[in-house]
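If your schedule permits, I should be very grateful for your opinion on a structural question. The matter concerns a single protein, recorded as an amino acid sequence and a row of C-alpha cells. Could you please explain, in whatever detail you think fit, how the C-alpha cells follow from the sequence? I set the record out below, with my sincere thanks for your time.

——
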Amino acid sequence: MSSFFRLLAAYRPWALSILALPALLAGCRHEVVVVPAYDNYFPVDVGTYRTYAVADSNWVKGALTVSNYQFRERVTEQFADAAGQPAYRLVRSKRPNSAAGWVDDSASVVQPMARAVVVTRNNIRTVALIYPAQPNKGWNDMAFSASPDTITSLTRFYGPNVAAPYTVPAAQGQPAVTYPTTVTTKTTLDGVSTM
C-alpha cells in the first residue's frame, strides 16, 4: 500500500471532511437585504425640528387627569462620539400651548446606525427604531439596560402599515403636509399598549 493511502486511512475522518467541504460550500447561499436609509423615518438634518401635540393621561387614585402641551425636538449639531461615529444633539423644548414661548427642557443624543437608531436621554440608551422596518416586527427598546431579559423581551413594535404616507391636516394657518414614507411604533409596558 502506498504511503498516500496509509496516510488517508490514518486520517480518514479528516479526509472525508475535506472532501465534503466543496459540496457543503456549493449548497450555501448569501442573501442581500436592502436596508432603507435611517433618514427615511428619523431625519437628523441639523436645523430641522419636529413639534408634537401631547395629551398626557394619568390615573391618580382612580381619577383620570389629562395634561395637554406641546414639545419640540430640534437637531442642533452633529459631532463624533468617543468611537468616532456620527451623533446628533437633539434639544427638546416644551410649552403649554401655541401662544406661549418655547422653554428648553432637555437634550439627548441620537445615533443613526446601519441597523438601528439609538437615543441616549438622561444617560439611558434606548433603541428608537430598527431596520429593516417590517409590519408588526418587534424589538427591545431597552436592549442596552441592565435588565436580565434584554434579548428575548420585545417591548416595541412597528405598526401594520410600514412605508405608508401620512398627511398632517392643516391647522392654525399652517397648510397640510404629506409625508410619503412613515411608520408607526407601539410600546408595550406590563401588557399595556401605547401608540
